Amino acid sequence: MKKNKTTFEDDGRTIVPMDFDRYLNEVPKKKTDQENMRPGDDLSRGQMKEVLKGSIKASLLVAGVMSLVLVLFVLFSLLVWFR
Q1: Quick check: 51 and 43 in contact, CB under 8 A?
Q2: What is the C-alpha end-to-end distance of the chain, expressed in Å?
Q3: Does residue 22 or residue 51 have the better pLDDT?
Q4: pLDDT at position 35 over 70
Q5: What CA–CA distances, in Å, run from 75 to 58, 66, 70, 82?
Q6: What is the DSSP string of 20-78?
Q7: What is residue 2's predicted lDDT score, i.e. its pLDDT?
Q8: In the prediction, which pLDDT does 6 show?
Q9: pTM of structure
């Protein structure tokens, strides 16, 4: 049995444009004042200190929990598992 071969007909549509020069010569957009702002620029000095204190407390809490889990695992290994 022969397969039905159809002939390829080009309909002229562009699937992917290959015009790379257009992307190399683009002029960058100027940023507005809203885009130039960094996160936290709208906070006062006191508010920024509170944010930093909160983030440090959160990171110390996570580090403390991880350290506690590690110590408990070592104690469990020494006192229960390897006995």
Answers
A1: yes
A2: 74
A3: 51
A4: no
A5: 26, 14, 9, 10
A6: HHHHHTPPPPPP-HHHHPPTTTTS-HHHHHHHHHHHHHHHHHHHHHHHHHHHHHHHHII
A7: 67
A8: 79
A9: 0.52
